[in-house]
Amino acid sequence: MPGVSVSRQRWIVLCLLTVMASGAFAASTKHKPAYAKAAVIKVVPAKVATKAAPAAATVAAPKPATVAAPAAATDPNLVALQMVSGMAEAGAPHLALQIMDRDQPGTAGVPADWMAWERERIFIYQQSHAWKSVIARVDQLPRDATPDLRAWETMQAADAWLHLGDGAKALALVQPLVWSGVDDRTLADLRQLVIRSYTAMGKLDDALTAVIR
Predict the structure, then answer these.
(1) Residues in Cβ contact with 116 at an 8 Å cutoff, skipping those fewer than 6 apart
(2) Phi, psi (degrees; rounded to nearest 5) at 27
């Protein structure tokens, strides 16, 4: 920005980012991806995560008056997932992850079950500040993972890189998704990650351009 000092540019960008942060991506992605609507799997209370809690945290527990509720209450997969989540919340995330490694359902069965476990795994990594584990998980996704879930995990990995202070690697993950035809809500989250990435890289002019667009 010609004629404006670097410190003045930084102040402008940080002010704009602060204003936008109220509805921004925030480390845990609170938005529910479309594929999560097909199965009400997550019944544990919402978690406080480093980024806005991913979709599963917003799924309400089945209502006792519904027909599906009695079956859900005895669903072994649901019971096991609740147990794992409870262990992590009680301060035993490592034990919870060991059980997940052993018991997480495969995608060949009910994909929604696997997705619920996968999101819980990312929650635990984020709350433990295990950023490198979040990043590594993207490359471990099965081939039949849905595009929505793959995009969501990639965004979590980008956020993890930002927590590690590497804006360039975060941007490298996010930019291809911007042009991949994602929905408007996901695109808005990606935009926030782009702004944060440029800011972390010290490219305040690029960050300001992303804010204005």
Answers:
(1) 39, 41, 42, 56, 81
(2) -15, -15
User: How far is CA 141 from its chain centroid?
Assistant: 14
The tens digit of pLDDT for each residue in 52-110 reads 444 443 333 334 343 444 444 577 878 888 898 999 999 999 999 999 999 888 777 67
Bridge partners of 51, per DSSP, are 27
Which residue is it, tokens 């917003």? Answer: 58
Q: Are the CB atoms for 29 and 156 separated by under 8 Å?
A: yes
DSSP states along 103-136? HPPPTTS-HHHHHHHHHHHHHHHHHTT-HHHHHH
| Beta partners for residue 27, in sequence order | 51
pTM of the model: 0.64
